Amino acid sequence: MAHFAVLDESNIVTQVLVVSDDVITDENGVEQEQLGIDFLTGLLGVGTYKKTSYNENIRKNYAGVGYSYDDSRDAFIAPKEYSSWVFDEYTCRWTAPITRPREEGVDGRWFTWDEDAYQADNTTGWIEVINEHYGIDYPDSRHDDERPTHLKLNP
Predict the structure, then answer these.
(1) Is 65 helix (H, G, I), strand (E, B) or coil?
(2) Nearest 5 degrees, angle CA 113-CA 89-CA 96?
(3) DSSP code of residue 97
(4) Please, are residues 67 and 79 in contact by the beta-carbon 8 Å criterion?
């Protein structure tokens, strides 16, 4: 299956649609983006459609709703989540100003970014997510103060 981002007039992704590989494959068995664009134009009307890939083998990143499309970089770019993060021109991703302490999931340890901690002390920012109650759905009757503040989720 092929995926196409629908862009608004400001090049912001509003939807990501799935199109059958049969639709975008030409008579020689080669995938052609334009065939998908033509299909979507016929189905939905005139618009801006860009192919995107889970494998990130085109346009740097898989498009998501709210991402922007940068025509000069031919890349989808996620919204900036933290004011301190910087843009990496090579990957077209926002990156933390300090390196993550270790790879995610090593030794069962997970980390999350804490912008307030970084703003208070720019040598910190990554905090370990600790909770033994991962994957548990808490019933609505449980009080908010009894719910964990950080969840450790297994991928």
Answers:
(1) coil
(2) 15
(3) S
(4) yes
- Letter for the amino acid at 49? Y
User: Which pLDDT tens digits describe the chain residue by residue (155 residues)?
Assistant: 999 999 999 999 999 999 999 999 999 999 999 999 999 999 999 999 999 998 878 999 999 999 999 999 999 999 999 999 999 999 999 999 999 887 666 677 788 999 999 999 999 999 888 765 555 444 444 444 443 343 333 33
Kindly report the number of other CB atoms within 10 A of residue 100's CB atom.
13
Rounded distance, CA 37 to CA 114, Å?
Answer: 41
- What does DSSP say about strands 126-129 and 86-88: parallel, antiparallel, or unpaired? unpaired
Same domain, 74 and 109: no
Domain boundary (80, 113, 135) is at 80
CB 29 within 8 A of CB 22: no
Residues 53 and 115 in one domain: no
Contacts 24+ apart (CB under 8 A), 104-112: 105/155, 110/152, 110/153, 112/150
Phi, psi of 59 (to 5 degrees): 60, 30
Specify if 88 maps to a domain: no
Q: In this structure, which amino acid lies at residue 139?
A: P
Domain of 38, in residue numbers: 2-80
Q: Same domain, yes or no, for 58 and 125?
A: no
